[in-house]
Every structure is written in structure tokens, then in C-alpha cells.
């Protein structure tokens, strides 16, 4: 596969940084489990300060490499190792492939117990639900979501809303949902009101875009707010698999810095896969110290950082609030109908086949 610098986009923008700010590390060496080897390359931030797009400066991910971020990443890594060891152990018992909790078809809803709640920021929580059996994995195919169901005491009908777990598909025993609360939003309010011990009806999988390793040379992910969760599922899958060499460019728009979800996880990946993963953050309401892009995700930014439409084997994924979707790609018509390709991506010359709306 051609290297980072060979393509346009993040990689083109990165070139001047490469010369002026830091030398890029070489591709990190992977252990059989796909983890970069300790002491290998990739210790520097991919992001640093990014050079401007006119007056705008695009990127600020280097910001995230604080000691707090590193400590949290280290804790997460340790947690991941324990989890993976458990998963591997389950797989090693002869004839004991982990059972998949979500079978689809006529399985219907599973009633899952909420085990743990973590407040992530001013409007988001991580909710951990136990799978029906301790040795089960979610087994969700990538990319796919889960459907939640809740009927309020006064409601005539239940509300149904999709969510994408942020835990790995082979995590044993539980799934984690990252949920942002919307004012008066029935499902997100219910989820935020839940306490450990309560149960939620969840079914799946809700198939989205079917991923296979190296299906595309380069994918671009344009996300707004909680639109990051389906993107993160793809990102995790790609970088957990040492055989998958796909390059990934993420453009992630949020209102304020506090709203950026999964920032330590993304920074960790960007740090460990500097040849293949770039993240560009855009804030509508940035702090004074912000060195990334400001405002909304716009045409100029996307033209600069996305892989060009003339590259044949690329795909651009879009997920975010309806206003953002309309401006970037047009909204989906329905869960099964991608609708017309409109907006910035159409203006930049992408074909409907090159774009997927979550
Ligand atoms: C494939 C997929 C995966 C998703 N995964 C997640 C996830 O992991 N975590 C998560 O928190 N949400 C996720 N969502 C969004 C989620 O399904 C709900 O739409 C959201 O939680 C709001 O539901 P609600 O019933 O509380 O509010 P609703 O009554 O549906 O909406 C309340 C208000 O918020 C607006 N709104 C709804 N959804 C969004 C949005 N995504 N962004 C901005 N404004 C919105 C509505 O226009 C309305 O004004 C996902 C959506 C899709 C399509």
C-alpha cells in the first residue's frame, strides 16, 4: 500500500508539518495481538499544531497528549489487556467459541441489566450493560448498531433508538454505550435516568456498512457529536487487526472542547498509528487556546483533508446531527435508503457510491 505521504488530504496537509514540526515515526511494529510494541515508534503526537487553511488552523489533537490523558490511556490499555486475555481464554477452551448475545432474526429484544454508569462530561454518560451470560460477547458484525426500546409510563407507544457500542465486539460479558442526553429526548433522558440494576430492552444487530479488512485503501470519517460512535467502531476494528492496512482520516466537529467524546482513545490511536490515522477536530465554540479549526465542518477543510474523489478505492462515511448531515452529504431518506447525495461532498465531486451515511 502506498504510504501516508503519497495521497492528498490529511497526508498532504501533514507534509509541511512533517518537515517543520516533527519527523513522522515509522509504522509501529505490531505484536501478534495487533498492539504496537512497547518502546516502538509512535510516541509523538500526530497532530501537534496544524498549519492553516488560510487563516484557519485545522488540527489540535496534539493538545490531548497531556499526562492525564496518558494515565487514562495506560489504564485503558491495562483494562483492554485483561479483557483480551479473558476473550482469548474463552476461545482456547476446545469447542467453546464465545457465544454471541445478539443473534438477529427473530431473536427479539434482550432485557439487559445496567451494571455501571460513568459520567463522561456535562451531557454524556457511559452505560455498561451485562450480556445475558458472563461468557458471551456481543458478536456484532462491523459496522452495525443495536436498537433500544423504552415505553414511558405515560407513553402510548415505545420509542426505539439505535446506539453503537464503544466496547469491542469481542469483549466478554458486557457492552458499553456512550449516550448523550438531548433536552426532552425520550430515550436519551431515560438512559441518563437509569441506575445500576435496572434493565433495558436491546436488540441487534442493525446492520450498517459491511466492513472487510482492506476493503478500501483509505476511508474518511466525517462525524459530529455522538456521530463518532459508529466511526469509532470502524476505527477500532481496523486498528485492532494487524492485517488491515486501511488509512483513516477523521474529521470530528463539536460545539465545545468538552463535547469531544473518546478524545483520549482517538489520541492514543493517532499516536500509535501515525502513518495511517489522522484526526482533525473542529469546534464551533472553541476556547481561546484552541489551535484546531473553528466553526462548522466546511468545504475548504474537507477539500484539503479528505482523500480526493478521483482515488478509486476510497469511502467517505458521514454521521452526525441532521443539520450537519444535510450540509455535508444530505440526510438519509430512511434507515434503508441512503437518499440523494447532496451538499459539500457532492460539490467536491464524490459519487454516491463513494459515500455512506450512517
Ligand atoms: C446508527 C446510529 C447510531 C447512533 N449511536 C449513538 C450513540 O452511540 N450514542 C448516542 O448518544 N446517540 C447515538 N445515536 C443517536 C440516537 O439514536 C438518538 O437519536 C439520540 O440518543 C436521541 O434520542 P432521543 O429519543 O433522546 O431524542 P429524540 O427525540 O430522537 O431527539 C431529541 C432532539 O435531538 C435531536 N437529535 C436527535 N438525534 C440527534 C443527533 N444524533 N445529533 C444531534 N441532534 C439529534 C432531534 O432532532 C431532536 O431535536 C445514533 C444514531 C444512529 C442513527
Automatic annotation (TrEMBL):
FAD binds at residues 161-163, 178, 180, 187-188, 229. It is a single-pass membrane protein. GO terms for molecular function: cytochrome-b5 reductase activity, acting on NADH. The keyword Ion transport does not apply. Residues 26-45 are annotated as: Disordered. Transmembrane segments: none annotated. It catalyses: 2 Fe(III)-[cytochrome b5] + NADH = 2 Fe(II)-[cytochrome b5] + NAD(+) + H(+). Keywords: FAD, Flavoprotein, Membrane, Mitochondrion, Mitochondrion outer membrane, NAD, Oxidoreductase, Transmembrane, Transmembrane helix. Its cofactor is FAD. PROSITE patterns: FAD_FR (PS51384). Belongs to the flavoprotein pyridine nucleotide cytochrome reductase family. May mediate the reduction of outer membrane cytochrome b5. This is NADH-cytochrome b5 reductase. It comes from Podospora australis.
Amino acid at each position: 500500500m502506498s504510504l501516508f505521504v503519497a495521497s492528498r488530504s490529511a497526508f498532504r496537509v501533514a507534509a509541511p508539518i512533517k518537515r517543520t514540526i516533527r519527523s513522522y515515526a515509522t509504522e509501529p511494529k505490531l505484536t501478534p495481538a495487533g498492539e504496537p510494541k512497547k518502546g516502538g515508534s509512535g510516541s509523538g503526537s500526530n497532530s501537534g499544531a496544524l498549519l492553516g487553511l488560510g487563516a484557519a488552523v485545522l488540527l489540535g489533537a496534539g493538545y490531548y497528549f497531556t499526562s492525564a490523558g496518558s494515565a487514562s490511556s495506560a489504564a485503558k490499555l491495562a483494562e483492554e489487556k485483561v479483557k483480551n486475555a479473558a476473550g482469548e481464554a474463552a476461545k482456547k477452551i476446545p469447542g467453546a467459541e464465545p457465544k454471541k448475545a445478539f443473534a438477529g432474526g427473530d431473536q427479539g429484544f434482550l432485557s439487559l441489566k445496567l451494571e455501571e454508569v460513568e459520567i463522561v462530561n456535562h451531557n454524556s454518560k457511559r452505560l455498561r450493560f451485562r450480556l445475558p451470560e458472563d461468557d458471551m460477547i456481543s458478536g456484532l458484525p462491523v459496522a452495525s448498531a443495536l436498537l433500544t426500546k423504552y415505553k414511558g409510563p405515560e407513553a402510548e407507544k415505545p420509542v426505539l433508538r439505535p446506539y453503537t457500542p464503544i466496547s469491542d465486539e469481542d469483549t466478554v460479558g458486557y457492552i458499553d454505550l456512550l449516550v448523550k442526553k438531548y433536552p426532552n429526548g425520550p430515550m436519551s433522558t431515560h438512559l441518563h435516568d437509569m441506575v445500576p440494576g435496572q434493565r433495558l430492552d436491546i436488540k441487534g444487530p442493525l446492520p450498517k456498512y459491511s466492513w472487510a479488512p482492506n476493503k478500501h485503501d483509505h476511508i474518511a470519517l466525517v462525524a459530529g457529536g455522538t456521530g463518532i460512535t459508529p466511526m469509532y467502531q470502524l476505527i477500532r476494528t481496523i486498528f485492532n487487526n494487524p492485517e488491515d492496512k486501511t488509512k483513516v482520516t477523521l474529521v470530528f466537529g463539536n460545539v465545545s472542547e468538552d463535547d469531544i467524546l473518546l478524545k483520549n482513545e482517538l489520541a492514543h490511536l493517532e499516536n500509535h498509528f501515525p502513518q495511517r490515522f489522522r484526526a482533525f477536530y473542529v469546534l464551533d465554540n472553541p476556547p481561546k487556546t484552541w489551535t484546531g479549526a473553528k466553526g462548522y465542518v466546511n468545504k475548504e477543510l474537507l477539500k484539503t483533508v479528505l482523500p480526493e474523489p478521483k482515488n478509486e478505492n476510497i469511502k467517505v462515511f458521514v454521521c452526525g446531527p441532521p443539520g450537519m448531515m444535510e450540509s455535508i452529504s444530505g440526510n438519509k431518506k430512511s434507515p434503508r435508503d441512503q437518499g440523494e447525495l447532496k451538499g459539500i461532498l457532492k460539490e467536491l465531486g464524490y459519487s454516491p457510491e463513494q459515500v455512506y451515511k450512517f
